[in-house]
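Lab manual, section 2.4: Encoding a predicted structure.

Procedure: take the sequence of the chain (143 residues), apply the prediction step described in section 2.3, and record the output as structure tokens. A sample record is shown.
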Amino acid sequence: MRGLLVIGHGSRRGEANATVRELARRLADEQGEEQHGARRWGPVEAAFLEVSHPDIAEGYDALAAAGCTEIIAYPFFLFDGNHTHRDIPAALDVARERHPATRWVLSEPLGLHACVVAAVRARLEDTLSGLVHAAGVSPAGRD
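Recorded output:
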């Protein structure tokens, strides 16, 4: 069975960690919608690289305990960097040592995926709309 490990950086701010947990919950609710007659993934766990729990080993343990032999690790990070190239794979390797019958694959972070660019545009539009309404000017910059 394939499981999904959603990995966030981890923060002392509970709201930041709640976002990672909520993403994991939403992906679990989708239950890895079927593709070509098979589910993409089964159980989903949230985990954190630093500061917060469950950490990557604890999340990996939970998926292995649920019967997952293949774990897709999704780094909920904006771009590729040391954490996604070095730290997360190292933590996954350590976690796998306790579960030798498993294997993991690391997904790419968000990066400049077309949906990210669309989301940035939407956030900018929200901001500009708020500025326009707050200033009492029309969206075209005219009164």
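Check your result against the sample. Residues 81 and 87 are 9 Å apart (CA to CA).
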